[in-house]
Amino acid sequence: MSESTLYILPWTNNSDQTVAIWLNSPINENCDIELYSYIWNRAILRYCTDGSSNIVAKYQKEYCLKDPNFIVGDFDSITEHSKLYFKNKSQFIHAPNQDFTDFSKTLDQITQNPIFCNIDKILVLGGLCGRFDHALASLNSIVRFQKSILKSQIKIYLIDENNLITVTSTSDTIINIKSDMNDLTGKCGYMPIMQEKTVVTTNGFKWDLKEKEISFGGIISTSNEIDKDVLHVKTNQPIILYFEIKK
């Protein structure tokens, strides 16, 4: 079994190899637009999913947001104003397939970009707030993406005003925490995402498990806590890892 390393918080490392995706999620009063803009502006490529271009257009002047390089989707959510606003600034990629979300279509487009082999992570802004089925769809898109690039070392993270979420591969995963503890509350957890028997062994959490099956209807890890500077997770199936971000 291979070994994989995750960095929390990921936007503090090697930003020159980062792609940012802005999803069409509600922006509420607690949303840290300054954090979003920091991540967005430092990325080497910036993708909007259809309706999220409306968000970037709305906040662009106030937060000095860079233009998206690409806007991807079936274009059922983008306004006419945003279409005109980005007409000569961004490349529009029409992806009408209704079997997949605009997020999944965007990830597919990233794999087709010549720069794909040079990136090491994808940071996704939003995708967790709003409708519950949209949040589940975001997680499904990550799993689908990771299954399609099994041999790649690219990491993908979902970020909102409260959470940082990623999906592990089937490997020994090391999570470096020490340098980022000032930005985390310490609350964290993990849970299954696959519809297959999932067995995990962890070290570094307040409540660790040893070769224990986790499942909905059984045991999942919620309201756990970081107990060491380095966390270790061993799993036979991909699982969700989540950390609470300080506001």
UniProtKB/TrEMBL annotation:
Organism domain of life: Eukaryota
UniProt keyword annotations, A-Z: ATP-binding, Kinase, Nucleotide-binding, Transferase
GO molecular function, one term: kinase activity
Pfam families, per database record: TPK_B1_binding, TPK_catalytic
Coiled coil residues, start to end: none
Annotated ranges, domain Thiamin pyrophosphokinase thiamin-binding: 171-239
GO BP, one annotated term: thiamine metabolic process
Protein name as catalogued: Thiamine diphosphokinase
Species annotation: Strongyloides stercoralis
